[in-house]
Amino acid sequence: AFSLCLSSMLDVGKWPVFALLPPEELRLIRQACVFGSAANEALYVTVNDEVFALGTNCSGCLGLGDLQSTIEPRRIDVLCGKKIVSLSYGTGPHVVIATADGEVFAWGHNGYSQLGNGTTNHGLTPALVSTNLLSKRVTEVACGSHHTIALTTDGEVYAWGYNNSGQVGSGSTANQPTPRRVSSCLQNKVVVNIACGQLCSMAVLDNGEIYGWGYNCNGQLGLGNNGNQQTPCRIAALQGVNIIQVACGYAHTLALTDEGLIYAWGANSYGQLGTGNKSNQALPTQINTDKERMVEVAACHTSHTSAAKTQSGQVLMWGQCRGQAVASPHLTHFSTTDDVFACFATPAVTWHLLSVDSDDYLTVAQSLKKEFDSPEISDLKFLVDGKCIHVHKALLKIRCEHFRALLNETDEDAIEIHQFSYLVYRAFLEYLYTDTINLPPEDAIGLLDLATFYRETRLKRLCQETIKRGISEENAITLLSAAVKYEARDLEEFCFKFCINHLTAVTQTQAFADMDHDLLKNFISKASRYGAFKN
């Protein structure tokens, strides 16, 4: 189970809404979504397929059955075990998911029938969207501000909800209370990818053609004009170009070709088209990406931010970036397009469902951590206080000068240690595998002794930090004595000042009564120099 947890760990650290979750909970997250007008709502799925929600819960968008906000994650029982494959949300917000079984569930804001249940009552708990979809398997969902579209395994698109600009594709501007198949010129065509801007919809076909419908006042349909469209229209300007993925921002569109090129069109007042200027484009314009092949484009209908990933794994961003207008693709140090939205979009929401790659890939650090004290491929064991600690000679030589010298002189496969306790020695070896220490302050003293003995300066510093964090009136003298003994000057100074500031309480402790004579004399003279006795 341990390796599973490690490989399944989704890094949600850049999304502030997750900041209060304890590390043991964060380790279990396998999928996550951050949404809402202030990025204050979140849903996540754990390795056990349990679904949790937290945040402000506007319009009941957390699906918890009430309108209560929650700073602690609460479980959405009806979704547990469902295996979510696609998730999208509107600005109400309403939330829509597709499950591995091809079912669609929706909840939250429903003022425009965007939940597809034929009513306009908000949905406080996830409900199956059934009209016209019961015999279909949905693989992908996309939401605009208040409308929803769904893609089936047959390549059909269904749409429902707000339709003021024709974004439902029904040929009218009447809101659509239940799912309706988007046909007209998509009849007999196979759609493979969908996306929604605030008030428009886009579909990519299996033959590389791309269609758009709905609001077009900024040219976001790429048709060369600014007229709204109530039924799907092919973007003729991309004739002969094979589109494989589309992403929509608030009022702009990005498309990726099978050759790794990016085309952009629509609104551009924040430079979100990446053309180097801020003029809207009603026709697709190829973006200059320095001949780098692109493998992903990213945008979200809540923002004017754009991002893309190159074949070599570099991430570019442009558009509105924390209030700045960046008009050309800018190279970042991020490893995923998700990080662009976490750090630079306003609001900082996820542009799609965050998911961990399910291949059990471990980083070097994770692999080493996992092998610590595991007998499986260990070639050396330390015997301390009658207990075994399993390690790997090569790693110890790489990580510690002392072991490099020691292990070059001996080919023992078991070494007995008498000088240090099991707890301390195990913590030291674990540090060599993980770069961190995990000990209460009193035990960190023993580790400080060891770090001094083995001349491990960084470990010594870590121990000092741990001890400082755990100082109290009861243990201050003990810690001070240890600092003196192991010549940890910085720590000695810290403990001494603490003792002076809490002099009355500290001098009444047992540790003070038992204090070594020389240390006591030294303490009193130093305290007087500090003016501790000037009454």
UniProtKB/TrEMBL annotation:
- Keywords for the protein's UniProt record, in alphabetical order: Repeat
Q: Show where the BTB domain sits.
A: 378-441
Q: Which SMART domains match?
A: BTB
TM annotation in the entry: none
Where are this protein's RCC repeats?
49-100, 102-154, 155-207, 208-259, 260-311
Quote the protein name from its UniProt record: RCC1 and BTB domain-containing protein 2-like
